[in-house]
Every structure is written in C-alpha cells, then in structure tokens.
Amino acid sequence: MEHTYQYSWIIPFIPLPVPILLGVGLLLFPTATKNLRRIWTFLSIFLLSIVMLFSLYLFIQQIFISCIHQNVWSWTINNEFSFEFGYFIDPLTSIMSILITTVGILVLIYSDNYMSHDQGYLRFFAYMGFFNTSMLGLVTSSNLIQVYFFWELVGMCSYLLIGFWFTRPIAANACQKAFVTNRVGDFGLLLGILGLYWITGSFEFQDLFEIFNNLILNNRVNLLFLTLCAFLLFVGPIAKSAQFPLHVWLPDAMEGPTPISALIHAATMVAAGIFLVARLLPLFIVIPSIMYIISLIGIITVLLGATLALAQKDIKRGLAYSTMSQLGYMMLALGMGSYQSALFHLITHAYSKALLFLGSGSIIHSMEAIVGYSPDKSQNMILMGGLTKHVPITKTSFLVGTLSLCGIPPLACFWSKDEILNDSLLFSPIFAIIAFSTAGLTAFYMFRIYLLTFEGHLNTYFINYSGKKSSSFYSISLWGKEEEKKLNRNFGLVPLLTMNNTKRASFFGNKTYKISNNVRNKTFITVENFGLNTRTFYYPHESDNTILFPMLVLLLFTLFIGAIGIPFNQEVIDFDILSKLLTPSINLLHKNSQNFVDWYEFFKNATFSVSIALFGIFLAYCLYKPFYSSLLNLTLLNSFQKWSSKRIRWEKLINFLYNWSYNRGYIDAFFKTSLTESIRRLAKQTNSFDKRIIDGITNGVGITSFFVGEVTKYIGGSRISSYLFFYLSYVLIFLMILFFFYFEKF
Amino acid sequence: MNDFPWLTMIVVFPISAGSLMLFLPHRGNKVNKWYTICICILELLLTTYAFCYNFKIDDPLIQLSEDYKWINFFDFYWRLGIDGLSIGTILLTGFITTLATLAAFPVTRDSRLFHFLMLAMYSGQIGLFSSRDLLLFFIMWELELIPVYLLLSMWGGKKRLYSATKFILYTAGSSLFLLIGVLGISLYGSNEPTLNLELLANQSYPITLEILFYIGFLIAFAVKSPIIPLHTWLPDTHGEAHYSTCMLLAGILLKMGAYGLVRINMELLPHAHSMFSPLLMVVGTIQIIYAASTSPGQRNLKKRIAYSSVSHMGFIIIGISSITDPGLNGAILQIISHGFIGAALFFLAGTSYDRIRLVYLDEMGGMAISIPKIFTMFTILSMASLALPGMSGFVAELIVFFGIITSQKYFLISKILIIFVMAIGMILTPIYLLSMSRQMFYGYKLINVKNFSFFDSGPRELFLSISILLPIIGIGIYPDFVLSLAIDKVESILSNYFYG
C-alpha cells in the first residue's frame, strides 16, 4: 500500500481550509460569514473525520506491517543550508493522529453547543481548525526544524484560545503567561536543535539517531556538551507538557473555554511534549544521565501536581493539576525507558481527561445560568454540590472518568497506570514509593472533586440563605454592554439538530431573562421576589444532546480503550496491539524476553495499587462526605481523630498541605517576585540608562553647544567696545606670556 | 530594448512627477492624494516590469547598468545598476512607499508638500539602492535626509522639533564620516579619483588605512542602522513622526544602513571586515538584549515598537558579521522581512492611535471590542515580529542562527555564548510585544476615554494591512522567493573572504 503513504503528507493540510476561509471571511465579509455559522462547523467536523478515517487506515496498515515511511521535500534551496519538509509515518504518528482526530471531532461537536451563544463562535472554530492543522503537522513532521515550526504554532493556538475571552483581564494575563512560559521551552528546544545539528549535521530523525549512536560508540564527542544539548532539547517538553519548573502556565490556561481545556490542555497539546520525548527516545537513551533527569522531573511533577490539586476550589484548576500529575507519570515512564507504557498512559489519560473536562464544561454550563458568568462562581466547586439530581448523565460520565483516573480496574487508566507503577518498582524503590502513594493521592483529589460537585445539596442557596447576601452577580456580560447577547439561534439549518427544541426553548427563554437582567446592570433582586414557583427555574439543567453525545462517546472510549494495551493470551503468543505496534522500539526494563505475562505478579501489583486507590477514595469520602449524611460516619471520624492522638500536629500538617496547595506551592508567587519583577526592574533600569546616559550624552552635547553658541552670541553682540576690550585683553595676555618667557630665559 | 535607461527612469520618475505637482495649480487635497498614489503604483509597476524582463537571477554581476558622464573634471559618473543584493530592497521600497502613501490619506495639512516629499524620498531611496558610484551613493544618502527632516518637523507630534533636530544632527553628523570615507577611498592610490564601485571592489589598501576607512563607514551606517550607542534618535523620531513616515523610516530607512554595511563595508573592505566582525557580533548580541529589555520600560506605544526594531536590527548585524553564506542570506532576508513587519506594526499602531488618541500604553485598554479587525491584524503581526514560524521573521532569524553555527571563524565557546544570549532575546521579545497588545486591546473598560466607540478599520486600512501581511506569510512559507534573488551575489561577496 505504498501509494497510501505517498499521500499522507496531506494529513495536516486537510483541516486547513476552514481556518483560512474563516479568517478571510471574518476579515472581509463578516456578515456573510457569520450567517453561515453552522456550515463552518459541519465543514470542519467533516474534514477532521476524513483525517480520522485516513489515519485509521494508516493505523491498520501499521498493525500488519509495522514500518516507517518518510518522504521529504526541500524547503530552501541552498548549497550551504538546506531545510526540508516532509512527513514521517510510524506507529507513534498513527497513534497520535488517531488520538488527535477522535478527541478533536468530539470536542468540535461539543463546542458547537457550548459556544453557541458566544459572539466569537466562528473565531473559535477558526482557531480550533488551525490548532488541529498544526498539531497534526507536529506529529507527522519528519525533522526537528519542522517539529519546532509546528511546536510554536500549537503554542500560538493555545495562546489565542486561552485569551479567547479577551475582555477578562485574568484571561489576558493567563494567555501571556502561557506564551512566555512556552517560549522559555522553545528557547531550550531551539538551542538543543541547533546544538544537535552542530554535532551531527542533520535534522532528520533517522540520520540523527544513527550518527548520534555512532558518535557515542566511537566516543568522539564531548559528553558534557552532548548532555547539555539533550537537556536543552528536553526543556521544550518540560514547558509544553507542564513539567515541574515550567508548569505554572497550565492551571492559568483554564481561563480558556472548556472545550479547549479538554482538547488542548488535557488531551493533545500537552501530550506533544511526551510525544517529542518519545520520538527522541533513541537519542536520549544513550545518555543515562539525561534519562535520570527526565525521570526525576517526571516524579517531581507527579507529586507536585497531586499535592497542588488537593485544595483547589476551581473545578477546572483541580483537573488541570491532575493533568499535570498524570503527565508527570508519562514523563516518568519515558525516563525509565518504558516507552510503551508511557504511550499507553498518554492514550488512556487523553480520553479520560477529555471526558472529565467535557463533563466539567457541562456542569459549568448548567451552573452559569444560576450563579452568573464569572469563572469564580460558575467553576467554583464550593457553590456546586448535589448536582446528581439535576444532571444525571453528566454525573455518570464524570464518575466513570474519575474512576478511570483513579485506576479502578476495568477502566482505561487502570491498565496503563498499573504498567507504569510496575515498571517504577523495577526501576527504583524510592520512585516506586512516591508513584504508588501519588496514586492514592490521585484517587483522593479526584473523589474530592466528584463529591464536592455531585453529592450533597446545591450549595449556592445555602450561601444565599446564610445571610451573606453574596449574590453580587457578575454584572457585566462578556462582550460588553451595548450588545445584547444574540439568542436567536440561527435556525436556517435547523432540522439537523433540533431534537429537544421545546425544552431548549424554555430553557433559553429563562436564560434570556437572566442575561438581560445582568446586562442592565441591576443588582440582582433576591429570589423571593420572583415568587415561589420561579425558584425551580434556578436549578441547573442537564445540557443538550449535542453536549452529551461527545461525552457518551468518550465514555465508551474510556471503558474500552484499555483493551489495546491489555495482553490477551491467545494460545501461546501474546497478542497486544500496542506492543505489536511498538515492538521495534526500545524497552529498557524488560530486557529479558518477556514473552509471557506473569499473571500472578500482575495480580499482586494490581491489587496493591487498587487498594491504595481505594484507600484514597475512602479518605475522600470521610472528609468530603456531604454534610447531612456525615452523621452516620461520625463514630468513624471520631475514632479516626482519636487515633491521631497528636491532633494538633495533624491539623498543622493538614493546614500546611492546604495552604501549600491553595497557594499553588508558592511557585507562582516565587516566579512572580523573582522573574517578573526582576524583568520589570531590568526594563526600568535599562530604560533609565538609555535615557540618562546614552541619550543624556547626546542631549548634553546639544545643550553645551547651545550654551557655547549663546555665549558667543553674547560676546559677538556687535559692540565695538567689547571687541576692543577682548582684543586688548588678549594682546595683554600674549604680552605677559612673552614677557614671562623672556624673563625666565635671562 | 536593453539600452533603454530603465533605472534612470525609475529613479527620476517619482521626484519629477512630484515636482510637477508643486507647479500645477492647487486643486484640493484629494487630487494630490490620488495623483501621488497613481505615481507610486505606476512606479511600482514600472520597476516590476523592468526587473521582470531585464533581470536575470542567476547572474551575480551588475545588470541594467547605466553609465553617463556627469561632471567631467573629477570623473563623476551617473552610474546605476542593480544586482541580487539591491533588487530586493528596491522592490521593498516601491511596495512600502506605495502603501505608506496610501496610509497617509488622512493627512490634510499642506498635503501638496507632504506628497511631494514622499515622492522625493521614493527617488532618493531607489537611487541609493541602485547607485554604483560612491559619490552618487553619498548624494542619494543626503538627498534622503531632507524629506525625512521636513516630514518629521512639520507633520510630527508634540515634540516634533526636538526629534527632528536630533534626527538631522545624528544623521548629518554621521554622513560627514561617510563623506570622509568616500573621498578617502576614491583618492587613494591614483591621481584620478576612482568612484566606481566595481573597480573599488578589487582594490586593496594598507591595513591601517583600511581600518580607518572601515571605521568611518561603520559610524555612518551604525547611526542609520542603528547600532547601539548610536540609536537614541530612532525612538524619538518614531515616537513623533506621523505613521506613514514611520512606515518609511522603519521599512526602508533603517535598511539603508544595513545595505550600506554589506555594500561598502563587506564588499570593499573585506580584511577590515573580518577583523571587525567579532566586535560587531558582540555589539549585535548586546543590542538584541539591550533593546529588548529597554522596550518593556517604554510607556509610549510607538517608542516600544521602535525599540523592537532596534532589537531586530541586531539580527542583521550578527548575520552580516558572521561572514557565512547562511548568515548573510539571513541578514538580507531579515532586511526584507523586518521592512514589512516593522512598517505594518507602525501602521497599525498609528491607526489605533488615530482612534483612541492616547499615546501611553498604561492609559489604553479594552479596544478589542470595538476594533476587532485591527486587533486581529495587530495580533498576527506581533506574532510575526516575535518570529512565529510560518512568518518571514522566523526564517530570517533561524538562518542567522544557522550562520553562526556554521561559521568557521569563531570558537565553540564564543559561538555557544552568542547563540545563548541571542536566544534569550527570543524570550524577551514576546514579553514586550504581547504585553503591548494586552495593554492596548485586552481587558474591558476604559476609564479615561469618554466616547468609547470607534470605527473599525475601513476597506483602505484593511487592504493595506492585508497586503503587507501576504508577503510576510509568503516569505515565511516559501523563503526561496527572496533567498533566490540574492543567493549568487552572496556567494560572490563571500568568495572574497575565502580566497582573499
């Protein structure tokens, strides 16, 4: 099937027409473009499905004949330097492209409804299309320059999408923070690429690995420099995948619309770092120290992310820290050299986390109608609670996602996480302890989120009733005052998606009222004024089918995607799609032929990890069990507290943990004071240097010449007497000098 | 057809047509505007036509050359000709000047003079880029200054007289050095002055003399480029000038310095250049960092962009001083690319200033709601300016980086250091560009401005920014458009260094 591969360069270009046409259309013919809004969505979904089918086809091909296809075209024609563009199809690429397209399609479908009221609906789809293009370009790229090219482009898309609601000052800061932090990573990446080019003289992956290995074998290169280059290369993934020192942008990135958080900041773009490390693993693996650094950073991130997720109020931030922690697991696996489990976890985590984010988006969507459009309120878990009654389907899928992330057996993340945990046992006991305990933490914070959101009673009204009167609703609608929100949905293309029209209509009618209320900037009149029956309106509603459908599909993925990595015992030979795909790649830990899976070993480890997870869940239940029912557990809690005899110290510890987590580990504050302030100070100093010294010299020269001119003017004021005076005085001076010399000679 | 004096016509046409406007009776601003636009477009078409049919890319020698004796007694010729180095800049000049004239549509005060000055500048710039005679080069260099001075001092902002004086003192002072250099070079060695650049390129000098010449030319071009400590005229000038003038300044005028560095310092004085290049490299690196860290401290919007151009000129200096094929190619590409990007950024800053009437960044905010198109274009162009892949700036900077790596001249450690520091500039660039766009457009409310509803950019402004954007993206995706123009010329320049 050679000819199929020949056309695979087209993969990144298929989704490209939509953003280009949308961009041109929005700039030149805004009204016409906006009238066609639904068509653009369908077009982008359609194009992305074509890519999905194509990459599915490639994937099946790869299963049967696992081989690498590469083709390059020259980009610049020059004798001295030649950059090439091309594609590179191998199992990794095909897996990644399937992942991107499936999650991408589902998120597109989802965001059609999620963003339908937004003024930037089309802009959103343009950005999304561009993101899909550049992400697909990233995974199919054949050399490092191309990787860098698309690497920056996805960073830019992320910047644009985080700052999508640019009227929010927080979003404006967040997107700049994300871009600059990622730029630090790009800085390292570029330097690493250049350094590697200097060593090997090539950008192509294949050549690079070959030359590199030869150099190492023959020991013809300075190992320190090599390690430095490899480390700089690794800085790129650190920033992109939100690893320890450069993770600060990810939680802030949650200011973007929720579908974006699902697609970019959970499933695909943050996985790009993992992808790049996986792609370059043949290169990293020959330098043991860099592998150690990778795993170290991985484990730090695992722990940090998990501890920071413990006390987040914002549901999306909590999920973001959890993403960070899971990415740390992947990085850890890569650092340990277990390529396969890292990729497996990448896939399972992508689907589970996308599900969780879409679920949280659905929750936010239904909460927004009640508490207002401020992310401080609509995403605040403290105001939620008891949503099980109101949003049952969302609840189910969220629960499945949570369980999967906790590592409960039949679900996706269990299989992959278990593999990583097992490998960490083989790698180093300390890392294994941290990794296992973090699995418990994961279960704890995930269930904390779940319980706060869905169990108990809706807390919004508790807070309202408790006399605080904190119903200062976010009184400014997102896009400014003068324009009322466009609520008349474009029913030009109606019949396609109007299943529950009546319900929606009533729901929206209700919403209109609220929004216009907000827009007019009245203080929100308390609930009582509406009469009793209106209060029922103010309970969250289940989202539309368009939102639920992608979540259900992702639910299926979460349930069954684990299958690709589960070793099936078919007679004697192991059959496991993932390992079949990735066998040619490296496996550090399982050097001795591991043709059979030791089921006993597997069960032992699995029980251990599952029990840790269950312990975490249990703890979460104890602590965050809804208010009213906690009486039942009182005895248990009491015994628990009695058991912790040094209660004060315990509380201190808890307080410390809470503060640590709530203040994001003080890392943001540290960066803020150390970096941002110092850059500001530097700017001020150089500016004053520029003004005072460099410009000062120029101005000084100007002013002096001005004064000299003035003095000359004054002197040469065409007065004969002054001329005579100067003439005579100079003659006198001359005579005196002459006289002195004359005098001294004799 | 080949004997037709294309270049003379291209050089003389704008200024003569412009002076015609001064003598014709005054028929209102509109007539002047359209007349100037037509001349600009005609000139651009003429240039393109002449280059299309008479310029062969694969020939590194001078083409379309013309040679007329002008002043007999000291051997002064009207000598024009273009090669791969100058064709790009001439086309850039035509393009940017046409767009700048279009951008100057709102200017109503004394529009006859204004447009005449624009056209005079047009002639001067093309004359400079196409002159093959050293004295002619100098004359064109000086001819350029007067229109800029007048444009600045008559149509500028509040502090225009200060800036204009500063500008003229800096540049006129520096062209003194240029004159000294020109006379020195031409009078050396023979009784008859030689001013022909081709002859001069093969001449060699005693090393001390060469260094002296080099320093003289360097000072002249360093002011124009600008190279730090001599850059302070630039932010003031840019901060005060009308934005159409800014487009010309940032798009073309700064490039004259870089062009002169290649054309005279590299081509005529190769030994001194290879001696001075490490110093220039260090200066260029410092300049990138220095300007990029000065820029966030600026309150004035245009000054901030001006410092960003200073920072980007550092790449050109580094590329020129790396003395490698990629480095020089990258420098030429950066000349073209920054010509587009700088001009576009100034244009957008000017149009948004026209609406909000505030100069200081910390007073602005929340403009994105009312002017989304300008916001979009501004975002795209600041991305281009911070070297986003797919745009021209990225390719240029990448090739310059490449030039340093492949350079044989420097030691490993120094190369690593220089690349490292340059790359730090890569981190600083988004800080000032993005925070600028954040301060201008993001956010919600504006307290100081009462009437908070602006018109979004109309068709003219949209056309203008899109037509600058297209070549930026085009070069970014397929850089051979520009690289192929200069490639042979670059090789022939560099061959002096390897065999000489």
Automatic annotation (TrEMBL), chain A:
Full protein name: NAD(P)H-quinone oxidoreductase subunit 5, chloroplastic
Alphabetical list of InterPro entries matching this protein: NADH_UbQ_OxRdtase_chlpt_su5_C (IPR002128), NADHpl_OxRdtase_5_subgr (IPR018393), ND/Mrp_TM (IPR001750), NU5C-like (IPR003945), Proton_antipo_N (IPR001516)
UniProt subunit comment: NDH is composed of at least 16 different subunits, 5 of which are encoded in the nucleus.
Enzyme class, broadest EC rank: translocase
Function: NDH shuttles electrons from NAD(P)H:plastoquinone, via FMN and iron-sulfur (Fe-S) centers, to quinones in the photosynthetic chain and possibly in a chloroplast respiratory chain. The immediate electron acceptor for the enzyme in this species is believed to be plastoquinone. Couples the redox reaction to proton translocation, and thus conserves the redox energy in a proton gradient.
Signal peptide: none
BP GO terms, sorted: ATP synthesis coupled electron transport; electron transport coupled proton transport
Residues in NADH:ubiquinone/plastoquinone oxidoreductase chloroplast chain 5 C-terminal domain copies: 448-690
TrEMBL record, chain B:
Membrane topology: Multi-pass membrane protein
Enzyme category, top tier: translocase
A Pfam cross-reference name: Proton_antipo_M
Entry's EC annotation: 7.1.1.-
NADH:quinone oxidoreductase/Mrp antiporter transmembrane domain location: 131-415
InterPro entries noted in UniProt: NADH_Q_OxRdtase_chain4 (IPR022997), NADH_Q_OxRdtase_chainM/4 (IPR010227), NADH_UbQ_OxRdtase (IPR003918), ND/Mrp_TM (IPR001750)
Chemical reaction(s) catalysed: a plastoquinone + NADPH + (n+1) H(+)(in) = a plastoquinol + NADP(+) + n H(+)(out); a plastoquinone + NADH + (n+1) H(+)(in) = a plastoquinol + NAD(+) + n H(+)(out)
Location(s), subcellular: Plastid, Chloroplast thylakoid membrane
NCBIfam families tied to this protein: NDH_I_M
Protein name (database record): NAD(P)H-quinone oxidoreductase chain 4, chloroplastic
